[in-house]
């Protein structure tokens, strides 16, 4: 039995707009990405990408999104992402851009990467931090995310072939 | 560089052979546009725009960027010879196949002949008519 | 492997073979290449700087000879002893099925060497029960088979078992009927013998169609007879020339710039303007022997000083012929191209360019 | 290799438009076409009509472009099924059903798709291309179907007509291809107008978009169609409904099928 191979895209949505966080939902991201594929690769590209395409995870606070599509067509999706200039939600357009952080073969590699990435971000914040209270708070959250990573390691071990793909 | 015609001597002509495998950069298509109604004409620029719009519909902006050349086009017969980079052949051909209308009038592209050699389009034995 | 996006960019196989030598060189293979390409549907020659058709060419073109179209001819008629003795063994007999498609139908071809080549689908092959081999281009599950019968073989006598079996297979086991293009090249007796031989069938004598035209103010690439690959700034390569020739024969505009909207094709550089170019096109069923004659005329043309630096002779083969050169298998995938171009230079050096498509052996 | 086949020319009551379609197919180089009669149980159109014979349609059959043979016209029955009981008609021997050369089913749900692939006595399974597939195509059912010599049909005209349908066509085709790896696919037109029909080489090229490799794509318009016909004939004779009559061989009976597989057209009622 051959299983279908997917690719997972871990992206960061960057926007200056302050109202942006409220309107960020899965549906908006889904439509935005589909529209951009249709624009860049036409009906054919959209048809290819829409097989198993889904928004697996969305964090509106950090603007992190995890997209999934079939491995055979992931290049079509990948090449379209840089062309996203706005996100449409409730008939409002919010200028934004997608920054691809990681492309992985399993959700788990993406998760590991994300934890790593976030802790790095926190450490960077820590370095630039001024007040003692902030420092305390960041240090706590750094420790907590380390703990989560450890825990993940023990619980989810079934997916074996997680070749990190950042080709 | 070219020797004069008088020199018919049996100079030791060297022999050289080059085999070019899949060396053609382009693919050539001989096509014509068929309309349901008669008497519809479009000029070369409109013809090319139609092809680009067909590419854009099926393959998006990436497809529309495919450098298609309309090498020759006859307005009367709607016959044309196209040139396309060889890696874009399937994209162009499929876009032509799936086109169904021009300005709300039903039409169809018929591909008569395709070849990696432009010279091959000059003599198609399948079009040979004996009387 | 399932890789649709890579398939989308895949390029169909094609070959362009370029050779360079001298016409009078004793080991030159150009004549045999011409002779081995048995089935030609179109011959064109291009003479730069030539306004009026030279008499020698006129007569050579007029002497191309007729060919015949025989309708509904049973294939076994071509293997009868009488046919073999009358035509195959005396001179060169050419036959090719007409209105058959090599990628869909059964086809047959009789070569001047006396070889009868049948390219048949799997069902016909199984019914015929003659020995053959699967086509090289039909994949893991062969759907097409090639049968080669040597009619000029000495063991192919009227009483031999082999002959009887072939006759039986083609006559009773699986009667095959085709429309044939026929031509016979020989020395001696009068032409119409083919006509009378097949008088029972519907036979029609046909003449090759000839057109002369003069193209004015043509941009011609500069060639260097010693440099097939060309030289930047000095001479065009054989490949560029091949494309240019196609452009000329298909009446493609050459005056474009890289920024033109319609087309960006332009004449390869360096180039010269030639005031007039004579183009002659012959279509029909043209025998290699006649092409050799034309070739001789071209060589003679350069005996006197001429303005032209070269003459080009383009020969298109039949897309649906089962062979290209010699007995090399030929097939049709997308274009079925098998053609060649001879460029004869003033010095009688020549370039020979042979092009074949996806389902062909290297010539 | 057999000639090109288009197994889906929708039947219409207007003879003239049907004639035009067949002529267009011949002109484009198809050597065999099948006229498709659809029975949809949801539309209360249940009775099976007797298929139109080619002599009713043409006094002389149109010649295939570039060949000296006339086009061959077959008949095909397509059942649109959403309930297993709908398929009983295939076993009925008394109706006009025995006149059809090819049986096809159009399963509306996953259960019926499985049934069609594994047990139904049909030649073709149609894949829905006008909407998102309402079920997952399962590998076991497809494998059984391939073993049984059943083919899957994809039609391309919806993809020409409409942009949304085009997306569904390509997307559904690719989902199917991931399972069947390009094997046992038939591409056909379902064209209502002559202008919607495309030449066989064009259709083979479209196969690339549906995820077929070059050889599979060409097979999908030629040899696979022939295999469907042979499957249909095998089914007919095995059923025992049709009785064959030997007919003296005429020289022009130059079909591409051998005697052992030769169609047994001549029915004895």
Automatic annotation (TrEMBL), chain A:
It comes from the Eukaryota. The keyword Ribosomal protein does not apply. Component of ribonuclease P, a protein complex that generates mature tRNA molecules by cleaving their 5'-ends. Also a component of the MRP ribonuclease complex, which cleaves pre-rRNA sequences. Gene3D superfamilies: Ribonuclease P, Pop5 subunit (3.30.70.3250). It is found in: Nucleus, Nucleolus. Its main location: nucleus. Component of nuclear RNase P and RNase MRP ribonucleoproteins. RNase P consists of a catalytic RNA moiety and 10 different protein chains; POP1, POP4, POP5, POP7, RPP14, RPP21, RPP25, RPP30, RPP38 and RPP40. Within the RNase P complex, POP1, POP7 and RPP25 form the 'finger' subcomplex, POP5, RPP14, RPP40 and homodimeric RPP30 form the 'palm' subcomplex, and RPP21, POP4 and RPP38 form the 'wrist' subcomplex. All subunits of the RNase P complex interact with the catalytic RNA. Several subunits of RNase P are also part of the RNase MRP complex. InterPro entries: Pop5/Rpp14/Rnp2-like, RNase_P/MRP_POP5, Rnp2-like_sf. Belongs to the eukaryotic/archaeal RNase P protein component 2 family. This is Ribonuclease P/MRP protein subunit POP5. One of its GO terms (molecular function) is ribonuclease P RNA binding. One of its GO terms (biological process) is tRNA 5'-leader removal.
Automatic annotation (TrEMBL), chain B:
GO terms for molecular function: ribonuclease P RNA binding. It holds the Pfam family RNase_P_Rpp14. Keywords: tRNA processing. The keyword Transferase does not apply. One of its GO terms (biological process) is tRNA 5'-leader removal. One of its GO terms (cellular component) is nucleolus. InterPro entries: Pop5/Rpp14/Rnp2-like, Rnp2-like_sf. Belongs to the eukaryotic/archaeal RNase P protein component 2 family. This is Ribonuclease P protein subunit p14. It comes from Eublepharis macularius. The gene is RPP14.
TrEMBL record, chain C:
It comes from the Eukaryota. GO terms for cellular component: multimeric ribonuclease P complex; ribonuclease MRP complex. Coiled coil: none annotated. GO terms for biological process: endonucleolytic cleavage in ITS1 to separate SSU-rRNA from 5.8S rRNA and LSU-rRNA from tricistronic rRNA transcript (SSU-rRNA, 5.8S rRNA, LSU-rRNA); tRNA 5'-leader removal. Pfam families: Ribonuc_P_40 (PF08584). GO terms for molecular function: ribonuclease MRP activity; ribonuclease P activity. This is Ribonuclease P protein subunit p40. The gene is RPP40.
UniProtKB/TrEMBL annotation, chain D:
It is found in: Nucleus, Nucleolus. Residues 246-269 are annotated as: Disordered. One of its GO terms (cellular component) is ribosome. Keywords: Acetylation, Nucleus, Phosphoprotein, rRNA processing, tRNA processing. It comes from the Eukaryota. Component of nuclear RNase P and RNase MRP ribonucleoproteins. RNase P consists of a catalytic RNA moiety and about 10 protein subunits; POP1, POP4, POP5, POP7, RPP14, RPP21, RPP25, RPP30, RPP38 and RPP40. Within the RNase P complex, POP1, POP7 and RPP25 form the 'finger' subcomplex, POP5, RPP14, RPP40 and homodimeric RPP30 form the 'palm' subcomplex, and RPP21, POP4 and RPP38 form the 'wrist' subcomplex. All subunits of the RNase P complex interact with the catalytic RNA. Several subunits of RNase P are also part of the RNase MRP complex. Belongs to the eukaryotic/archaeal RNase P protein component 3 family. This is Ribonuclease P protein subunit p30. It comes from Eublepharis macularius. The lineage of its organism: Eukaryota, Metazoa, Chordata, Craniata, Vertebrata.
